[in-house]
Amino acid sequence: MALKKITYLSLFPGMIDQGLSHSLVGKARQAGSVELKFVQIRDFATDKHKSVDDTPYGGGAGMLLRADVLFQAWSSVTSLEEKNSESPSRPYTILLSPQGKTLTQGLARDWVHRFEHLIFVCGHYEGVDERFIDACVDEELSIGDYVLTGGEFAAVVASDVLIRLIPGVVGNTESVSKDSLEGDLLKAPQFTRPADFLGRKVPDVLLSGNHAKIEAWRKEESERRTRAKRPDLFARYESGKKLS
After folding, report:
1. Of these residues, 98, 129, 152, 184, which one is catalytic?
2. In this prediction, what percent of the chain has a pLDDT beyond 70?
3. Domain spanning 5-163 has what CATH number?
């Protein structure tokens, strides 16, 4: 099983569509490696003003997306019966939220190989009525400890991470397996022509043609760079080495 489709529930679907229409992801869409669908939440509003939000009960700042409108938008893609089934191909619903677990390379890789269809719900305004989350959302996802205006940009980021991990999207599989953060390590320094730039020369080992020495150098540099730049990640790497 591998990810084949992502559906977005959004008030601004064009922001997502535009962001995912270029470069590698755009090519993946054109090649049919992944299908992206967009649902305009406002289409499911029932009053003449097409209202999708309202003031929170109990008072407070901002407006909340209404559970009933969101539910109708979501129900155009799936159902409670399907969500509560044990079918491995059922859509998996994710709310983009600063309260969710943080997106990581490992989490993305897991989702790509566990789910065929993801539904991204893009919140807006002050948040989402909790009853929609309880009834329809499988998991909440954050891209970092900060607050965005809405979930659209988070959806673009998460989708880019996921789509490039779909088998066949990146032609050179080694490019993916040796990305930064794969195996809890940052990528080693990289160099290309010219060999001498502002008096800074490419390390001799990379010009040696000795592939074993080059790989050993890259591993050492990767560990050194991770220890210096991301001690939290290096601690996880060290912990993993002890368990293996």
Report:
1. 98
2. 96
3. 3.40.1280.10
